[in-house]
Amino acid sequence: MMSWHWTYFDVDGHPASQASSTQFPNQGDAETFIGQQWQELLASGVESVVLHEGDRTVYGPMSLRPEN
Fold it and tell me: Largest CB tally within 10 Å, which of 17, 36, 38, 58?
């Protein structure tokens, strides 16, 4: 069974120093996590995220900044 995980990126598009090792059993759980944690991630320097299922990129990069 594939696990789902996020990769975090800084403002320059480089991998962020924050660990993105949290694994989720499904896409819904991964998206719920980002929905609950995006403000804390943004405050710690994460600007965008990419969702992966195993080695496959599902979508992203997705900005954590609210649209104006």
Answer: 38
